[in-house]
Amino acid sequence: MPFIVIPAALRRLMSEPVSTLEVDAATAREALDGLIAKYPELRETFLDSDGNLRQFVRIFIGEEDIESLQGQDTPVTPSDEIVLLPPIAGG
Fold first, then answer.
1. Of 8, 20, 38, 83, which has the fewest CB atoms closer than 10 Å, so is most exposed?
2. Closest to 60 (Cα-Cα) out of 31, 39, 34
3. Could you tell me if residue 15 is inside a domain?
């Protein structure tokens, strides 16, 4: 199964913090849905009120930004590492 790498900044928001999570997913969208199903408290971090991916969230499969591939419909394989980069305020 592919796995999601969860940045430290997100772990503090999780009810049971983990650094990675295996997900049963065929696409990047399904992987994100799997993460949110397990940790609903992360929903607002990644999705807007209409359920769309927030503008500044970046999802990488390996080193490729899914926006340069097929967006959220980008296929994932069992060996893929999915990295989520949420928007971070400040600077």
1. 8
2. 31
3. yes
Handedness of CA 55, 64, 27, 31 (dihedral sign): negative
In this structure, of 11-15, 38-42, 64-68, the range with the lowest mean pLDDT score is 11-15
How far from 70 is each of 32, 33, 36, 64, CA to CA, in Å? 15, 17, 21, 11
Output the DSSP codes for 66-85.
GGGTTGGG-B--TT-EEEEE
pLDDT digits (tens, 9 = 90+) for 41-76: 999 989 999 989 998 899 999 999 999 999 999 999
For 71, counting Cβ atoms within 10 Å of its Cβ (0-12 exposed, 13-18 middle, 19+ buried), the class is: middle
For the chain, the domain total comes to: 1
Q: Name the residue range of residue 39's domain.
A: 3-85
Q: Are 46 and 53 in contact (CB under 8 A)?
A: yes
